[in-house]
Amino acid sequence: MSEKSERYQQGMATRRSVLGASYVDAATKKASAYDDPFQTLITEAAWGHVWSRDTITKRERSMMTLALLAGLGNFEELALHTRATANTGASRDDIMEAMLHVAIYAGVPRANHAIKIVKQVLDEMDGGQKP
What we know:
Elements: H1 6-19, H2 21-29, H3 36-50, H4 58-72, H5 75-88, H6 92-105, H7 108-125
Helix pairs in contact: 1-2, 1-3, 4-5, 4-6, 5-7, 6-7
């Protein structure tokens, strides 16, 4: 694996602040020489460029991400980014507002399934207590 760029270093710092150090450490341990180009791309582009911008807050970026993931049906990533709200400042009310937008702009079935996943994740975050 080659030396990493400044954009990569910024991306990794942002990724850790949003997803949590333990998650990122576990994910990077799974990386190999084969998927290093992909990991570098997403760390530089998604985390180093987009998520590191200061034009909007991490809370706002988190809400947009949740809505996009739900609307596109990327439910595994939706669960990950729901957990990340503990670090981004997006509240449970914020998450529901994002899901309401999904219902109107991407469809009720997508929002319905997304809300099911969000509820499961919030339940896990609460230690098994219902949100």
